[in-house]
Amino acid sequence: MLDPDSVIAEARDVLDLSQPVAVMFLAIMGHVADFGLARSIVARVLDAVPPGSYLLLEDGSDTSAARVAAHERYARTGAVPYTLRSAAQIGEFFTGLDLVPPGLVPPNQWRPPGAQSHPDPVDAYAAADRKP
User: Fold this and answer.
1) What is the pTM of this model?
2) Which has the closest alpha carbon to 127: 56, 63, 60, 61?
3) Torsions phi, psi of 128, nearest 5?
4) pLDDT digits (tens, 9 = 90+) for 94-126
5) What's the whole-number mean pLDDT along residues 58-68?
6) DSSP state of 66
7) Which of 35, 41, 74, 123 is deepest in the core (most CB within 10 A)?
8) What phi, psi does 56 have (nearest 5°)?
9) What is the number of alpha carbons within 13 Å of residue 98 lying toward its C-beta?
10) What is the number of other CB atoms lying within 10 angstroms of the CB of residue 6?
11) Which DSSP symbol is given to 109?
12) Is the dihedral of CA 116, 120, 121, 126 positive or negative?
């Protein structure tokens, strides 16, 4: 697993971290089985970026029996482990940040005003929140 501190140090070589940036963890944190460690990684990265930066995070959720069953089949294949989390757990990654509408919702609900979202349910949650 990558060390967040070394990644942050390398990022400083190419990014101007005196200016706001967007930090994106898209379908990534499920690869960190320990929830406390996953939260710690996100917090350490956010501590390194200035106010006005954004956290975009999306991860798979355990919100349907069909998704959980499919995930159990996936796990038996020997593929890279991935941990499904509840919507509430995914929401905890955003603690202390300013909510950007529509907030923590399935990713198919992130659309411009008036745009139609995909009607099929998506067993994942996503948000983009701003560091105050």
Assistant:
1) 0.88
2) 56
3) -130, 110
4) 999 999 999 999 998 888 777 877 777 789 999
5) 93
6) H
7) 41
8) -110, 120
9) 7
10) 9
11) G
12) negative
| 33: its two tokens | 């089985």
Are 53 and 8 within 8 A, CB to CB?
Answer: no
Strands (E), 29-108: 54-60
Closest CA to 122 of 109, 131, 103: 109
Residue in this structure with the two tokens 């060390």, named with its chain if needed? 3
DSSP secondary structure, 34-50, as one string: -HHHHHHHHHHHHHHS-
Token reading at 36: 């406390």
Mean pLDDT of 75-82: 91
Among residues 125, 95, 121, 131, the alpha carbon closest in space to that of 30 is found at 125
Mean pLDDT estimate for the chain: 91
Both tokens of 14, joined, read 């190419």
CB under 8 Å to 34, separation ≥6 — which residues?
none
Query: What single-letter amino acid sits at 53?
Result: S
Q: Tell me, what amino acid is at 27?
A: A
Q: Is 78 left (phi over 0), alpha (psi -120 to 50) or beta?
A: left
